[in-house]
Amino acid sequence: MGACLFPRLINTGGAQKRPAPPPEIGQMRFKPLPRHEFTDTSRKRAALRRKQRIERESLPLFANQIAEEQPTEDQVMYERAQRWADQEARERSERAAEWRRARRMIDALPDSERRAVRRAWNCAPYPADPSYLLSTLHSYSRGKIDLKQPPFPLSRTDASGARIANLFATSDLFVTILQARSIAENPDAYPLAERHAAYHHLQAAASSNKDRTEAMRDRVRASELFLRLGELEEEIHA
User: Fold this and answer.
1) Which of 41, 36, 33, 38 is nearest to 16 (CA)?
2) CA distance 29 to 141
3) Which residues make Cβ contacts (< 8 Å) with residue 173, sequence separation at least 6?
């Protein structure tokens, strides 16, 4: 059976990948599952020939009989492509079922919690896969995650979990070190712009302060404050 009979199952090129666009406001992050089609290559066929030759040579008295029962290269490649396609279809179906399960769990929440979950998910530093979303929902249901103060900045991430905004960019707003420390004590009482300025001031102070004890405290303050940062162009309403 020739390869031309199943052109959609075998791809001699490579896996086709479509880049996932960053999520828009109001949409939940979603990472499309790339399709990896089976590839029929000369190396695979050479390996098959070696395998079949070893099978024949292992029982030389029955070599002719074994050769008659061995499938052709095209037949083996076709069957592999079929199994590959079936396996990929099962995986995509299971993944879709996980997405539906997660969406049902979110839809069952009150409006305020539903908005908070979606916001946290769109800012989470995890790949936008249903397994991570279900894990996040499980942690929330067990009280391990505070949606208003999650263990990551409320700054949107792309489908891979990378931050879209550069939270490490230097702020043009000036605050004193005392103001920065006050902001770090209660960040939610201050606008995002002041949080950013305080974060960068604390980082700079920790690097230049000769008092190692106070420098370490400023680093801790900066680390805690980093979790309360977000995009400067919008305020967070969780």
Assistant:
1) 36
2) 20
3) 193, 194, 196, 197
Residue 139 in contact with residue 145, Cβ under 8 Å? yes
Burial class (CB in 10 A: 0-12, 13-18, 19+), 160: middle
The answer to whether 165 touches 155, Cβ cutoff 8 Å, is yes
Six token digits for residue 38? 């089976």
pTM (2 d.p.): 0.62
157 φ/ψ angles, rounded to the nearest 5 degrees: -120, 160
Does the pLDDT of residue 8 top 80, yes or no?
no
pLDDT in tens, 187-225: 878 887 888 788 887 888 888 888 888 888 888 888 778
Q: How far is CA 81 from the centre of its chain?
A: 28
- Spatial distance between the Cα atoms of 232 and 101, rounded to a whole number of angstroms: 34
The region, left, alpha or beta by phi > 0 then psi within -120 to 50, assigned to residue 143 is left
Distance between CA atoms of 232 and 235, rounded to whole angstroms?
7
Q: Look up residue 216 and give its amino acid.
A: M
Q: How far is CA 79 from CA 10, 87, 88, in A?
A: 11, 12, 14
